[in-house]
Amino acid sequence: MNGVMSASLLVTALGLPLVLAFPALHRRLPWPVHLALLPAVALVFIPVNFWIELPWFQLGAGLGLNAQSRWWLAISVMVWALVATFLFTADRRDGYPPQTSLVLLSMTGQLGAVLAIDMVSFFAFTTLMGYACVGLLLADADATTRRAGRVYLVLLIGADILLLEAMLMAATITDNLGFATLAYTISLSNSADLYLSLVVVGFALKVGLWPLHLWLPLAYATARPATALLLWIGPVATGLLGVVRWLPLGQMAAPIPGILLLAIGTVTIFYVVLFGVMRAQRTPLPAYVVIIVTANFVIGLGACLIDPILWNRYGESAPIFMFIAGLGVAIMMVNFQCSNANDKRSRPKPVDRTALKMERGFNAFIAWGRRTGMDTLPRFRALWLAKWDGLWQKRIWQSVFDSGEYFLQRWSFAVTLFLLLFIVTLALLLLDAASVQ
Amino acid sequence: MNWSTALPLLVLASSLLPGLMIFFLAEERVITRTTLNLAGALLKIVLVGAMFWGILHGQHFETRLPLLPGLDLVLRAGPLSMLFVTLSAGLWLLTTVYAVGYLEDSPYRSRFFGFFSLCVTASVGVALAGNLITFVLFYELLSLCTYPLIVHRGTEVARKAGRSYLAYTLCGGALLLLSTVWLYTLAGTLEFTERGFLSGLDASVHPQLMFIFALLIAALGVKAALIPLHGWLPQAMVAPAPVSALLHAVAVVKAGAFGIVRVVYDVYGIEFATSLGLTLPLAILAAATIIYGSLRALFQDELKRRLAFSTVSQVSYIVLGIALASPLAAIGGLLHLVHQGVQKITLFLCAGNFAETLGIHKISEMNGVGRRMPWTMSAFTIGALGMIGAPPLAGFFSKWYLGLGALDADQAWVIWILATSSVLNAAYFLPILYLAWFKKPPASWPAERSFGNKETAWTLLVPPVVTAIMTVVLGLLASAPFGLLEWVRLIVIRGYAQ
Amino acid sequence: MELMLGDVPWIVMLIILPLMGGMACFLFPAISTALGLLTSLTIFTCVAGLSWQLQDAGAQRYAMGGWGAPLGIDLYADGLSLLMLVMTALVGLGISVYSSRYFSRDKANHFWPLWLFLWAALNALFLSADIFNLYVTLELLGLAAVALVALAGGAQALTSAMRYLLVSLLGSLFYLLGVALLYHSFGSLDIAILAQRVEPSPAVWVAVGLISTGLLLKTALFPLHFWLPPAHASAPAPVSALMSALVVKASFYILLRMWLEIFPIVGASFAQLLGLLGAAAVLWGGIQALRQTRLKLLIAYSTVSQLGYLFLAFPLGTSLAWQGALYMLLSHAMAKAALFMAAGNIQAVAGHDRIAELDPITQHLPLTLTAFSLAGISIMGLPPSGGFIAKWLLLQASIQSGQWWWAIILILGGLLAAAYVFKVIGHVFTHDQPMSEAKEVPATMEWTALVLALIAVLLGLFTSWPLAMMEIGSPFGGGYSG
């Protein structure tokens, strides 16, 4: 009974927000986002660790809860509750119905990612969440946020491809992609280094580390607190969860990726401190705080990669670190929201031209493509069609055929040909006879 | 003639006879025509189901009709045939429903539906062919029956597209005939055998066999839209939407890809073909087509042309999967045969909906379409995401297996091709989704037709939604016990020596 | 009953019946149509009876008046003759039915006697067993055909008929010279006896040259095809049909017979020349057909092209190649007759046969255009049709014998045929408005075209019977083998 109830709770935790994402449904319910959160809340408080496996689902999926993921789930639930509250306290904009649906979809994705116990489901859920977040960014009224959305979309696509390759590599090494055994099996294989690099770079693209962190300040500059929180719990935090799960921490020493992580984290902190704080504008501040937190986490991970023993000692504290960091971010957001509500200041727009340059390049490429021709080039057409359409050739051949028939129809010509044929035939026959004898 | 010899013929007849009868109906007999159409489609599904049932219980279905002394016309139901037949039969039903709604009040409907049914007959014949001569027969019939559908509207553009189509496919057909006769002279038989019937031939004819392989790929590549023989496909988009949907998702393009599968697996045999060094050039050609098609798709503003180039690109996944000498890649290729069919038909049916309901033909006109036609746009979104390869939709799994197969066959460059193609797919599909969902709709659509407070006619709406649901289901239930994956594994295993 | 059927001299009846029918039509013009149809039906049954007899008892030889060779006239029926007779009967029946509604009263009075007379000449030609008889029937055939071509009246018809007459006489003259030389050398006119006695000698070479050239002129092989298109363009549709389908095949039949029986001593170069000329005919005829603006001229040049295929069998020489050529002959006859009948229907409705202006009338003639398309499929050599089977056999023969260049010609010819057939069919799919007042065409005419086209297509599916029929009496047994 317990097993059935826990399994159904797991499924409902993911199914309810997915179902409620339909506009028809959630418009009729009060507080739909909070409703959708309820099963997940229940899950946090169930004392037992358990999991369910569905081998026929996708390539063999599993969902489950253990001590580590409980902390992640707790902070997720809390942040989502805040998001839900802020969603409805902000000034209502009826022109964007997709917002609630997108929020619910990213919630499904994020919760699913926390609950996933194998690579494929994790990947699937993070994809769902990622694209839903992108959708939220792109639907915003502000041009800056939309730009942030576009930048993040490109990063997301690149990251997904790298992670897909990493998954493929893992699949060639082992059949079972569950996280429980993944770390161990990866550490045993020969191509672990390539795998590690792919994972590190892939996730680095997602979580906003230098030098690809620009979308975060852009998004935070003019976003509402709800979106800001969502962006943290979604791409950033779950991205970090992914790194923790996908890397074979504690099983093997990988000095080079570890040093890479250390380096990126440190540089990020320096960069942020130098440029961000120096600008001394209040609005991007939460973004930079978030980036610093991420960078700290990444430094910790880097150290663990260099020396696995560190992980074995301090690994369990990673989720607790995220929990506390999440609390901090949440408090900061709430503060921010209240202070903004009291103090209606016009927000200066940060000037940022990087995204525009990229886009200009892309548009120019498309325009060039369109100019060089929509139709298939003539040389790809069927040969005889091409010959037939060539006007110059047509004239020559036409006259050849016309005159041919004309001459053939003249009696003199025809009779001459006839006699000629007779003579040729005779000649051939005699030649044959001669050669036989 | 008992049940097991008659059933393949009955499957063919279930669309041939209604088609021939529809030719003689007057234009106004709408109900009779629709009934004949739907009855034929449903009957075909029932018969295919019966065939399935029989095969599961160990029956063999084969029809043999003597054609020439020493050559028979053979219709045989094997696992690969059943894959394609089921796809054809299922998607035909949906497209027929759609076509009935799409062509309401158009002229020459009897002619259209007559040729439509003949087209499906030819397609099923291609699927069930048991030797190369039967394949050639139905392949040519397919070319002939699709021409009237392409030129149906009779405009100058349509006729030009039809001429181009004929030029390409008839030349391909001529090459196919030549290669078949040549093979028959060399090998004495044309029956499709597991692992091919050419491996036993003397080594002195191997150069000839290599040349024949090139001819066969050129001939089949015309329909399968391999570069540089793909030129007819974007031009043929001028046909009505149900024609584009059926032809380019199921019948014509898949027949070409299916032919290539047959040639590599059942005529040459994958191991023999690899030993002759034929598979690597084929893989390279397929990879080039994938990239080229995606690039051209990026440059198009017309929706149907973009989808056409997307087809050019995606069908080569199938060829790529076959050409890599690995069972996993072959599984990916065959899975993609089904998945691409279902996804592409969704996209085309939705494009037809946009054209029919709102007069939209270009992507730049599609701002805010998602508000006006949410169900259609959702189906489009699912189809597009499946094409990009987003999990958990169907397209992801075919690309997964292709990637695994590439690694298995030590051809890691293929992974780069797959990755680049996914990026390009995202680059040309995601802007459409963005425009449709997030931009403000214009004040008025180019040519709006009102359907009351419904989004569009239900005959136009239900088919794409059904195929979108199928995309999702195929993805979610990929590893299910009686699912597609098991079936495809079964097909591929037979191609390799144990 | 069986005994009786076996005893009836079907061979003789096949010659006598059309002659009598022709005379009756001449004597009783009022009921000529009915008489003509009746005769056609009876001829058809006679052919059926003969085929039954041949399948039962093998090749048949009949001595006219009890006087056998070498003094008397023998009639000989084996598989090859039977094939030609069946082809004539089927196409002839179709033409009769078509003409019963096509011609007006006064034209019909002239048509029926001439047509039945021509049919009698054809039957006699296919059944003749000696070379002088062949000359006689060939001449009669030519004269009847000329008269039929001139039937339409008008300056152009008369000019082309005159030209055809001169060509026909020239060809027959050369043939007669050849026959005279052979008779002088070997003392007999009977084919079977000549086959035994013939030996290489200068006189024989000259005779072979004379006979072949004369027959090639009459079969309109490139470059001697110049008389064919004008004759077709100005003749009435059923006359064009019977000329393309039957008359040119008669001289080909004679050439084939001579080749198989009397000319096996001929070396390979002449065969290659014939093949070369056939290939040129295929390409030239195809390209010319593509360039035509009038429908009947297009179909006439298509005949020139298809006849070229028949000559490809000569350099190949294996029995597979002969089978292919004969299958091509048979399906071409059906398809070409259907095409001309369709053209006749179109001309009857539209008053002209210009291809570019076909758009408005195509909607009035669905059956006719279906017949055109089906016949076109056979001409193109696409499955399923008799043309495809013939193409397959010829391709197989050419690849087997290693002379793969003929295969290229076959493929190219097929593509050219597709080009000119679809040039016409493309006009069916138009969004022009159909012509509002259009003349009605009798249903019989449309259905005859459709039935003949269907036979051409069905020949592609039911191949065993024609192929078996060809082998009766093994005419290719002692054939030239490469």
Question: What is the number of helical segments of chain A per DSSP (H or I, 4+ residues)?
Answer: 19
What general outline of chain B do the C-alpha atoms trace?
globular
Main-sheet strand order of chain B equals 1-2
Largest sheet of chain B: 2 strands, antiparallel
Q: Which strand order spans the largest sheet of chain A, edge to edge or round the barrel?
A: 1-2
What's the alpha carbon Rg of chain A, rounded to whole Å? 33 Å
What is the rounded Rg of chain B? 22 Å
Would you list the SSEs of chain A in sequence order as H and E?
HHHEEHHHHHHHHHHHHHHHH
Order of helices and strands of chain B: HHEEHHHHHHHHHHHHHHHHHH
- How many beta-strand elements of chain A? 2
Give the terminus-to-terminus CA distance of chain A.
105 Å
The parts of chain B where pLDDT drops under 50 for at least 5 residues are none
Mean pLDDT of chain B: 88
What structural class results from the helix and strand content of chain A? mainly alpha
Structural class of chain B: mainly alpha
Short description:
Chain A is mostly helical. Helices cover 77% and strands 2% of the residues of chain A.
Salient structural properties:
heterotrimer, A: 437 residues, mainly alpha, 2 domains, 19 helices, 2 strands, 2% strand, elongated, C: 482 residues, two-stranded antiparallel sheet, 74% helix, disordered C terminus
Give an account of the 3D structure.
Chain A is mainly alpha-helical and 437 residues long. Chain A is built from 19 helices and two strands. Chain A folds into two domains: 2-367, no CATH class; 385-436. Chain A has helices spanning 2-20, 23-28, 32-45, 67-89, 98-115, 119-138, 143-173, 179-188, 192-207, 215-222, 225-246, 255-279, 285-306, 308-314, 317-342, 354-371, 383-389, 391-409, 411-436, and strands at residues 50-54, 61-65. In chain A, strands 1-2 form a two-stranded antiparallel sheet. Chain A is elongated. Chain A starts with a helix and ends with a helix. Chain B folds into two domains: 1-167 and 238-264, no CATH class; 287-498, no CATH class. Chain B has helices spanning 3-23, 30-56, 79-102, 109-128, 132-150, 156-187, 206-223, 232-235, 241-249, 252-268, 270-275, 279-298, 303-323, 327-358, 369-372, 374-388, 394-408, 413-438, 458-476, 484-493; strands spanning 62-68, 71-76. In chain B, helix 4 (109-128) runs antiparallel to helix 5, helix 5 packs antiparallel against helix 6 (156-187) and helix 16 (374-388) runs parallel beside helix 19. The longest helix of chain B is centred in the middle third of the chain and has 32 residues, at 156-187. Chain C has 482 residues and is mainly alpha-helical. Helices cover 74% and strands 2% of the residues of chain C. A two-stranded antiparallel ribbon of chain C has the order 1-2. Chain C is globular, with a radius of gyration of 21 Å. The N and C termini of chain C lie far apart (46 Å). Chains in contact: A-B, A-C, B-C. Chains A and B meet through helix 6, helix 7 and helix 16 of A and helix 6, helix 12, helix 17 and helix 18 of B.
